[in-house]
Amino acid sequence: MSDMKRTQTQTQRNLDSLEAFRLWVESQPAGAVVGRAGKARLCPLANYLGRGAVVRTGSYELPNEFRLQALPPWAKEFVFLVDRQGMRYDGLITRDIALQLLFTAEHLGSTSSTD
User: What is the pTM of this model?
Assistant: First the structure.
């Protein structure tokens, strides 16, 4: 049992799939805070990636990897929107706010990636 638990906690998520992130957000209880705006270690994407992840405007870093990885276009837009819109909500990003911002980011990110 402890081996299975250890394996699950060692599994790292990544930002390759917008759909996987959306499913994670949707799985959170209604009204739940999924992250904080302006906090690299507490933004919704960092919380999705797991403990120790850091998400900045254009890149992210997973714990123990010591290398920055570029954010995909949708994630760049999402981080921008979270930080901008988060000011309206005292920095707290709830499940519903995250889903609204993700919808916008998805469309902006797909537009910017076709340039």
Answer: 0.81
